[in-house]
Predict the 3D structure of the following.
Amino acid sequence: LEGKTLRALIGGRPLPIKETLRVATQVAEGMARAHAAGVVHRDLKPDNIMVGADHHVKILDFGLAKLLDDSALPGDAAHSRLRTISGDMTREGRVLGTASYMSPEQARGQAIDARSDLFSFGIVLYEMATGRLPFEGKTSADLLSAIIRDQPDPPTRAQPETPAELERIIAKCLEKDPDERYQHADEMAVDLKRLRRTTESSGTQAVRTPSGATAHAGRDTGAGPAAGRSILKLTRRWYVALPVLAVLGAGGLFAWRTWRPPVAFRPGDALVVGEFENLTGRPEFDVAVREAFEDMLEGWSQNRIIRGEALEELASGAPGGVVPVLSRDNLARMCAGGRCAGYLIGRIANDGEGYRIAVDLHRAGSEQIVVSADVRAGGESEVLAALHELAINVRRRLGEPAAHLAVTIPPTTRSLAAFQAFAASHESTDLNQALALLRKATEIDPEFVAANYHAGINAQSLGHWREYLRWTEEAYRRRDRTSVPERMIIEAQYLDATYEFDQEIEILKAMAGLYPTIPLPADWLAWHQNLTFQDPVAAEAVYRKAYGLRPDPLQAGNLAGTLAAQGKTAELDALVEDFRRRGASAMALADLNLERQMLAENWPEARAMVEALKEPGSRKVGAARSYLYGLMASGQLAEARNFSGEAWRAADEAKELGGTGWVAMMQAWLDRRRGLPARLASDQVPQMEWSFMNLPNLALVSVELGASEPLASIFRSHETELQDSRSRFVVQEMQFIRGCQALIAGRPEEARTLLEPLAHNSILLRRHHALATTYEALGKWTEAAAEYEEILKYPHRRGYLVIPTLMALDRYRAARVYERLENKERARHWLTQFLEGWKDADPDIPEFVDAKQRLAALGDSATPSQ
């Protein structure tokens, strides 16, 4: 090649900014091509970069390069087994490359991936901008130590005219932790190209002011790193009535790396997106631009966006109210009194062949505009990417860490119509309507990954398990179009849909380690701890962390549920008060207060709160189920049977099979108590069979009903497809179901053989209950007493026993077992506990009547109960 090496061009002095950006952009694009082909260079330095006479840049000398294993993700142990193009010379522990340009992990002799090249590139870029190296040392050992431990001086210290955005890009490349660097070279290339375009189009050199902010000759565009809206939004697994939050982010940078001082908003502050004035003459932009920007601004933001029912309440004082035109004057009125921290007003106008989109962020209670930003779209197909860039710019100015924003990518569709349908689906409280909108989005653009993913989530929430799997497979097939964290979540969701829970949990643990400041992986792990493994104690810690990162209604509801399951009244009161101070809507507070009344067993107040929720939809379903649960837990079984019809209608109106399925099981149990047939009606079977996850609960209910159907037929429909499952949880739950079937069929010895190993050291209360029933059938009273004691250690976890009355009835059954063992003290203790817990119970319940008689026969206790 004819030309000069970059080493020769630098020559110990800074390159002109224009030349730096031109060369750097080409190097970044070249590295992106190499990495896409599975090649890591591992010796990137100015000597290996040639600038030709035609100004084209070539990356040379791949002698130390290695081929990446396509099946391994960055950071996987598999990277220590990757082979080198020139031979097996890169085993972990051997340091290869040029010391001055090594990454920290390379200097330690650890396994590396493509992100190591990006650190080396940061050193090269620093040298181009300043004329010197960021890390120095008298010996190689000193140099490597500096790379591993020291922070370099900001480039502006050596070269004051270094643009602030270039300094930010360099800082991001030089992060010690690979997870906080750029994750892909093409992300860095986009940032460099944008900075290059901004610098050339302005005709001025961006320089630092004495305050450290950036000054331009023209309008502040807020140009910054390419980032993207997450495909993962707020979702809820309605079939278990507990939410999952899908919000991603990452850690922050040191203060000197922040390219622009944040405005004074706090994480969790509520914002409203107002109207976008449409000056283009194109009516299709009237609503779509605002809705798309609102959705992207909310995506992974640390601030709360008021929309949907919360916006209706802000505008009119109640959900369902009329929202006025979201003009500046109306928004100023709505946000008065601290009900929101700020609001945004936007506009879109023609700009040559394309469009100019701008937005102003106003602080509530003042006339001050605290952020102004604008972007340009080359045409309609670029509008979404431009809106995404605009949202990222605003969020950066709100103080979100650059590393938080850099892990995202732009929307995986260019269709504004597809994205508008996608955004509208999040506004709908009707899951069927939301699913229809997501179907529309995928019909417009089948490659729209986010729409496929969320269609699966909504299908799951509605209980359409086969459809959930189909949509999830569509997202899984397209997962490589997303960022690394999004791809991991899609993979975890796919494993969830295919019941491979062990692998799913491992992916979530890995993601929680890679992205410790984001709520989603820990939150999802907590969901498994709370529902799959019935451990609210373990779930509380991660839910607290998630609530701290994003204090919204879903996270507050998650945390409230785990507190209630532990009987933590004071902590639940503190949560309600904290949520109120953060500006929670009356609707969100009502949901938490219902949980509080249920925990306090204040049934009249809870009933009044449920009655206030007359509108159909998910909130009505959740409230009705909660109240039915409370009636059954308190022994008010006649009222529970009457109310169950209302709970059924609420779930049926919302088409939520998870809700109707649970109510159907409760109705069958309540009817059995009245001497009616125990068999579930045929039209209720679909509510039972839509997910294998329902079957362990149905098995426990079937034991109480003494009925083998529909459990047996539904289990057969799942058994074939799950017989080869590698998930330990699935294997164990299938064994649990078989044990329950044996017990129902009158084969208690077989049931004991199947259930005993499962209950040993298990926190799953259903396993202990089934085994206690088995021991009673075998006349093994000591063993039965031990199992009942294991259950009754956790009185507030009664919901985990599926039928809310079982916790109380197990006290009665434990007392009966202790009578057989002639342990009057323990029998008296549990009879007393049973009667106190059911003080509001129907007086004619047979167990209630019998307990009073037995306690009277036992007489007063001579010694305190243990």
